[in-house]
Design brief:
Blueprint (H helix, E strand, L loop, with lengths): L6 H5 L12 E5 L2 H14 L3 E6 L9 H12 L9 E4 L8 H12 L6 E3 L5 H17 L8 E5 L2 H5 L1 H6 L3 E6 L1 H6 L19 H16 L3 E4 L8 H13 L5 E4 L2 H11 L3 H16 L5 E5 L2 E5 L1 H16 L10 H7 L8
Parallel strand pairs: 1-2, 1-8, 2-3, 3-4, 4-5, 5-6, 6-7, 7-8
Antiparallel strand pairs: 9-10
Helix pairs in contact: 3-4, 4-5, 10-11, 12-13
Length: 344
């Protein structure tokens, strides 16, 4: 490599706003499944996040005790990669603040993020962020915890641009089931399925608005669940459509068998990776001036606009590399994607 400058320094004058979150977000709430998911993450590497579920996964009335259990798991040796988050209850729930007090003093430093479900409007998100930041300050945390939010109400969808622009938000997810239910039967049950959710105009509109808002503000759009976890073909097709057609860069998993198909669907092909490496290396050699590159028997002109695209391909390849099965050559991975330090 003839230029020592990192691609992200050269290609993004305003700073690289590219999302760097793992492409899969795996949800689990029962203790045995939470432990199993953390063990699987330790084996496969940080190609997926583990979200410990304090909303649907907690017993009704036992949310605080469940938060204490989640805090113990976050700080346990099972969390080897520092990529574990927690889904809270909605901000209007009486257990919201008690859960924070149970979580943050113990696990705040190791939490990768907190998921805020069911904000009804921007004011809900603002209130949640303020309460979380106040609890973090009381717990002595020096840095704010990244926040994710679920878009699953009419009000949240109406405010999706403002929510994506919120300075405390890192990612927005689409809550398919609650969104369909909020239409009081006007959207059929089929729109919750692996195929129907890509066909119903109201559901498809919501997905597109969330993805567009996130990309406009440099945040990560996270695609909703596929409940047919035994149908690997349907899951693969849904993941590929979310990634290739709707612009999503992350997707939920609700069963361990869904993790690898989601990661594989979001990974670029070997041919895409090889082409991206060739072009970025040639760009570096030309000190980032325009180049001519031959691909599939045709000469193509590339400059910084297309360099940015190919850099994103390499970022995605890096984020979808399982332990022991990296897509990138070792020298490329070491030069451009050095391993981050994990907070003890």
């Amino acid at each position: 490599m003839t230029s020592p400058r990192h691609p992200s320094e050269v290609l993004f004058e305003e700073g690289d706003l590219s999302a760097t979150l793992p492409v899969c977000d795996h949800y689990c709430g029962v203790e045995a499944r939470m432990r199993k998911s953390l063990q699987l993450q330790a084996e496969l590497g940080p190609v997926f996040d583990v979200t410990l579920d304090g909303e649907d996964g907690a017993p009704v009335g036992g949310e605080v005790e469940h938060a204490q259990l989640m805090a113990e798991l976050v700080v346990s040796p099972l969390n080897q990669h520092g990529r574990v988050g927690v889904r809270l209850v909605p901000v209007e729930h009486p257990a919201f603040e008690p859960m924070l007090e149970a979580l943050l003093p113990t696990a705040g430093k190791r939490l990768a993020y907190l998921m805020v479900p069911k904000p009804r409007h921007l004011a809900d998100l603002d209130r949640a962020a303020c309460l979380i930041d106040a609890a973090a300050q009381r717990a002595g945390l020096l840095h704010p915890i990244p926040l994710h939010a679920l878009i699953e109400t009419h009000g949240a969808l109406q405010a999706v641009q403002q929510m994506a622009a919120h300075p405390r938000i890192e990612s927005l997810s689409f809550g398919l089931m609650d969104f369909v239910s909020a239409h009081r039967g006007a959207i059929p049950q089929s729109a919750m399925g692996a195929k129907g959710q890509f066909r119903h105009p109201l559901v498809l509109r919501a997905k597109l608005e969330i993805a567009a808002a996130c990309h406009a503000h440099g945040k990560t759009p996270s695609h909703c669940v596929v409940t047919e976890f035994k149908d690997s073909g349907a899951l693969q097709a849904a993941a590929e459509q979310a990634c290739r057609e709707l612009g999503y860069t992350r997707m939920w998993s609700i069963h361990p068998d869904q993790i690898r198909p989601i990661v594989d669907a979001f990974a670029p092909s070997t041919a895409e990776v090889d082409q991206a490496i060739e072009i970025i290396l040639a760009a570096q050699a030309a000190d980032w001036a325009p180049i001519r590159h031959r691909h599939l028997g045709r000469d193509q002109l590339h400059d910084r606009a297309s360099y940015r695209y190919f850099w994103h391909v390499l970022q995605r390849a890096h984020r979808t590399s399982f332990a022991g099965g990296a897509q990138l050559p070792t020298e490329v991975a070491q030069a451009w994607f050095p391993a981050p330090a994990v907070t003890p």
